[in-house]
Amino acid sequence: MPEYEFVDVYVPRGVPRKEATRLLTDHAEYGNWELDRLTLMRDGSRRVRLRRRIIRQIRATW
Fold first, then answer.
1. Which of 2, 5, 19, 51 could bridge to 36 as Cys pair (CB 3.0-4.6 Å)?
2. pTM above 0.70, yes or no
3. Which residues, other chains included, contact 33 with Cβ-Cβ below 8 Å and sequence gap of 6+?
4. How many CA atoms lie within 13 A of 1 on its CB side?
5. What is the distance, to the nearest Å, from the Cα of residue 30 to the centroid of all Cα atoms in its chain?
6. For 33-47, what is each residue's pLDDT tens digit?
7. What InterPro entries does the annotation carry (predicted)?
């Protein structure tokens, strides 16, 4: 089963959708993050959980 690391990003209420999209796109492109969960809060803010697969490197034995 793959292992993931997670990061939570908080997007305040006043941030337009286009800017929030650009922020998440930058995380996806440059940090190899993908969307795990997006929660729209009652006050209009967004809480976004991003995940990235952990790749374990096997140590060489030679």
1. 51
2. yes
3. 7, 27, 50, 51, 52
4. 1
5. 11
6. 999 999 999 999 999
7. DUF5703 (IPR043758)
